[in-house]
Amino acid sequence: MRNIAIIGGGASGIAAAITAAEAGARVTLFEAGKRIGHSILVSGNGRCNWSNATVKAADYSNAGFVARAFDACPPQRVWDWFADLGLLWTEETAGRLYPQANKASSVLDALRFRLEELGVVVACETPVASVCPSGSRWVVNLQGGRTERFDAVLVACGGSIARSLLPDGYRFVKRAPRLCPIRTDRDSVKGLDGVRVKGEAALLRGPEIVAKQSGEIQFRSFGVSGIAIFDLSRFAQVGDTIRLDLLPDMSAPLIADNLIRRIKRFPDRSAEKQMAGMVLPVVAHAVLRQAGLDPAEPLTTGRSVDVARRLKRFEVQVERFEEKSAQVSQGGVAVDQVNPTTMESLRDAGLHVMGEALDVDGPCGGYNLHWAWTCGLLAGAAAAAGSAR
Fold first, then answer.
1. For residue 91, what are the contacts with CB-CB under 8 A and spacing of at least 6?
2. pLDDT tens digit string along 333-363?
């Protein structure tokens, strides 16, 4: 019976523990926190958007690596695995899959009860300091000085922790917060805190459009948020410009014509009031200021084109990212050092790296949890079987 250590009690670690134990391995799951599955419980605003019905490799960074992993573990295998655990789910907008019970705890319960049935040792509040090879086995050094030996070690911890655990010599891609709000120049968003709009967001680096997203955009006192912004954050850099289309269903000429009719109908109203019913007053105020107009003065027909253009091209500048609110981190162990069908290191037999420890990330909508389950199923089965090298 192979003796396996898994470091990290998140989605990929739990999936690997169950898979390895079902294959006959003795499994110890080390978790630094007070309980396993914290990331599962907080995902999807506590509802756990655990997968997506339309998931495909092209949705991820390092898509070639992900494609090979999906060839070895197709999305249907993940869904069948959860069905076997007893989970029922519903499909919502854009393919998002949520548990039928509408609570993240129902997903974690299905996983946790299976861990208990299989006799997996769950060691919470047990941080690991490092792992190192010892002949054909692996030594896990726990904080406090205690050591344990295993046939294989699966590193499933996110953030920068993996870098401190692994032996020297592994190449890491610099980590950065992603799927998070973006801090921008405050003058552009002044007075807009809490406003939500359905719009389109384009990310510009100089004149080049780097990425586009559509959906909900939420203004914050410090910048912008919402699903469209979260997805855009995967591609953003400090200094980029975010261009917002606040009326995506209307062309600029159509907006200008609409404004001219308003001006002729209400010539004595302030520009902000002339835009009533088109956008919220605070949005009108911000758009007019960015167009160089006084919101308190009437709008002239000659400036209607400028206002229409600004409604289609409202711009904010990226200053930094809200790291504490980030759902995932971009970066991690470079994927060219890992076998995508087993998550095993190409250098060190018996060492597997998976989930958020790898330089793979996807958009909002269940993609990152689906990647975690995929990694866990592949790594758990491979570790239980032993290296084929």
1. 53, 97
2. 999 999 999 999 999 999 999 998 999 999 9
